[in-house]
Amino acid sequence: MKARAASLLLMAPALLLLAAVFVYPLLRYGWLSFQASSVLTGLEPVPNGGANWGRLLDDARFWTDAFQTLRFAVCSVALELAGGLGLALLLHRPLRGRGTLRALTLLPWALPTTVMALGWRWILNDPHGPLNAAIRSLGGSSYGFLSTPATTWFFVVLADVWKTLPFVALLLLAGLQTIPEDLEEALRLEGAGRLQILRRLTLPLLVPYLTLALLFRLAQALGVFDLIQVLSGGGPAGSTESLALYAYLNAMRFLDFGYAATVMLATFLLLLVLLGGGWLLWRRERAA
Amino acid sequence: MRLLVLLWSLGPLLWQLRTSLLRPEALVAPLLEGNPWTLANYQLVLSGDPPFWRYLGNSTLVALATTLLTLLLAVPCAYGLQQQRGLLRWGVGLGLVGAAMFPTVLLFLALLEIARRFGLANDLLALSLPYAGLSLPLAVLLLRAAFADLPVELEDAARLEGLDLGQRLRHVLLPLLGPALASTGILVFLASWNEYAIALTWISRNDLLTLPIAIARIGGGSVFTIPYGAFAAATVLGSLPLLLLVLVAQRPIVSGLTRGAVKG
Amino acid sequence: MNTAIGAGLELRQLCREVGGRRLLDRLDLAVAPGECLALLGPSGCGKSTTLRLVAGLDPASAGQVLLDGQDLGALSPGERQVAMVFQSYALYPHLSVEGNLELGLKVRGVAGAERQRRLGAVLEMLQLEELRQRRPAQLSGGQRQRVALARALLRQPRIMLLDEPMSNLDAQLREELRPELRRLLCGREQPVIYVTHDQQEAVGMADRIALLDAGRLQQVGSPRELYADPANRFVACFLGRPAINLLAIAPGRQLGLRPEHLHLAEDGPLAARLLRREWWGHQQLLWLDSRWGPLRVLCDPEVTLPTEPRLGWQRQHELWFDPLSGARLHGQGPVW
Questions:
Q1: Residue C217: inside a domain
Q2: Which subunits have 3 or more CB–CB pairs within 8 Å of chain C?
Q3: Distance CA B106, CA C159 (A)
Q4: Distances (CA, A) of C71 to A1, B160, C257
Q5: How confident is the model at residue A15 (pLDDT cuts 50, 70, 90)?
Q6: C138 lies in a domain?
Q7: Strands C192-196 and C159-163, how do they pair?
Q8: Chain B neighbours, 3+ Cβ pairs < 8 A
């Protein structure tokens, strides 16, 4: 028991910092979301009952952003999982220079999001970016990729997939490496082809890793911020704005801290419901 | 197939490299006569005010301080958690997994308030406090998995020989944890090097910006006025340290993620 | 082995409970100075649990561990001055042989010259001089065991504990090492507890054997006592190879007869039918069937069998048990 108490003491500093960084903000938002705290109140919190929450329910921009964020997250995570699985399978095969190949494919993930977001902006530049140069040299005319909602959305998803696919691939690669080779050999002796091995053996054994990647990436994608802020600024006409960006704008541009806190807390709650609900459903499926 | 993969992941970066080496006129007129190549963009970036290496230095300082602080806090925490049983172990473990997944941008407002109240804004070393907090969940989970992989009997043997906790950590556990410490450290370093939302709100002084913010600021003008050549040179300079890090540390990064995945 | 009261190691009503499960139930045991006691039993019987309680690695739920009359309960493992050889040897993989042996000495503040002297002596005794720079991964199983032993001896322990130190070695090496291990460990002043699940090893190493099952002490005594006068059916079955025959003679009585105590006799009371024979060179083992159940009999390899063999035995070899509880029933059985 003495040892148990001593080990609690060892954990204390880290747990304190964690509480300050994760728990305090959520509590603070909970409190702030029942205050008016904006330029109108001189940036001082004044209790306003549930006015923020009432406003949230009627805030079309919030719900549009929620839908846009969800759509973005589902699409890019789905693409990342599919592409990541393919890349993992490729990187798992014994190739010459596999280590270097892994390192190079990992590079997009290691770079700051803002750096590559600006890089994409240059590539998509109208009319000087390479993409438009290529179109022109094929006889077409320049296109403002970042000025129509559909293409902007497409490239936001593409940029996100480009950056995080290597991470997903790496997680799945880790999973592939835990599958003993003799399992595959046993199945091959029974006459299974490569596709059958993938379907009957590899994928089922990869489920925990796929789930982990799915949950982790979904949570991150639902909180997408820096990519969108730099690449599209949420535009055109708010068509790519995410919840996190909306919250940021409320705080830093509209200086409405009470409502910003409400939006952040609501985003967190949505996330909790989505992921928690998904997790429970998945657990029940597995148990059944 | 390999080529295709490389083209996909490196293509956009190589294009940046090309852009950074072109004269500004060559950017808008692809068929310019004469030699389009120049190092002028790099000169411009490096002689700016403040010079670009300043941002590299800022980011390196924050990332190193964060890595150190995170490991300092995470090692005892992971060890302590590994000793726990029952509800506490389960609860803390679950909380850490949740925190590791948490989108950190949602925290920036409350953290900014803290920074203002305690005068921590525009202080690079203070920035490593929230960074360490954000990195701790993953670091503790990875290190706990590493502790769990060590045979219990090794520590038992050391206890029987009279080594106290500090001595056991120093002579037996930490030397064996070397690879896990390295991979955890690298992941923390990468994450804090690249962090955006908190640095964006905590740091406003121009000479204290971290690299991601500095680069975003360069690109912050309207789409038409961004000096793309200079900007590309900045991204190349900013990417080089990470490229080297990833090339050198590929193995620990992969193994670090593996451990995290297995125990997650 | 008579010693002064309180000398040596004494366990009193020692219990260990984890999550409501009793791993060890009120163990009473005494080991005299210089005595080697084997803790024998199937896996999960509580042998290793006992060792860890004596070493202080796990806390006891109840009961006491006394050494020369002193209660060790409040002492940490390091303060107990106990040495243990682990089943896996638990050598520090990042340190050389020398480093493994020196770490404890350094931490306990033994000065350089003295350290070198003691290290040299133990390296010589275990013939490890040539290996002193090697890492554990570069050693064979037998060499690793010697390093683990050396580390334990360097501790100059007041109690020596060994947890299945042979189980990672192949059968032949095990037999060869037994006398050497006995020479090194036993007959010094400290009590030795040797945990094993192998009865042959226990008989070969120990002065006395304590047999455990399901966390309870079944019997403690010399190997001969346990063999000839088992306290219950579990003890009778666990010791002796091939295992004892159990015959359902009558309701409420079960007869135990060891295969080596049965012989072919024309006028024997038990008729049997031969199923199979195993030839072992110096002996043969017969597998038989009888109206009281299957039987194993050890006999001379050259003996010729009648078509309907009859078996006899001496009354003194009969062991009677309660068929339900397995308890030993004393007194005479029925007259044949």
A1: yes
A2: B
A3: 59
A4: 19, 17, 44
A5: very high
A6: yes
A7: parallel
A8: A, C
pLDDT band for position B205 (50/70/90)?
confident
Min Cα distance C98 → chain B (Å) is: 14
Four-point Cα dihedral B119, B124, B126, B132, nearest 10: 150
Residue bearing tokens 């006068």: C229
* Amino acid making up residue A179: I
In this structure, which topology does domain A40-287 adopt according to CATH? MetI-like fold (1.10.3720)
Phi and psi at C208, nearest 5°, equal: -135, 160
Domain extent for C148? 9-233
Task: Write out residues 115-174 of B within 8 Å (CB-CB) of C.
Answer: 151, 153-154, 156-164, 167, 171-172
Question: Among B243, C108, C273, C292, which residue's Cα sits nearest to residue A112?
Answer: B243
Q: What is the least distance, in Å, from the CA of A60 to any CA of chain B?
A: 20
ipTM of the complex: 0.85
DSSP assigned state of A198: I
Pairing between strand C9-18 and C62-67? antiparallel
Amino acid symbol at B122: N
State the total domains in chain C: 2
Residue with tokens 């802020």: A229
Residues 74-93 of C with CB under 8 A from B: 76-80, 82-84, 86-88, 90, 92-93
Pairing of β C36-40 and β C208-213: parallel
In a domain, C44, yes or no: yes
Nearest to B167 among C76, C86, C107 (CB): C107
| Three-state secondary structure call for residue C75 | coil
Domain ranges of chain A: 40-287
Say whether pLDDT at B220 is over 60.
no
C-alpha–C-alpha distance, residues B253 and B262, integer Å: 14
Residue C312's beta-bridge partner residues?
Answer: C263
Same domain, C61 and C209: yes
Domain presence at residue C335: no
pTM of the shown model: 0.84
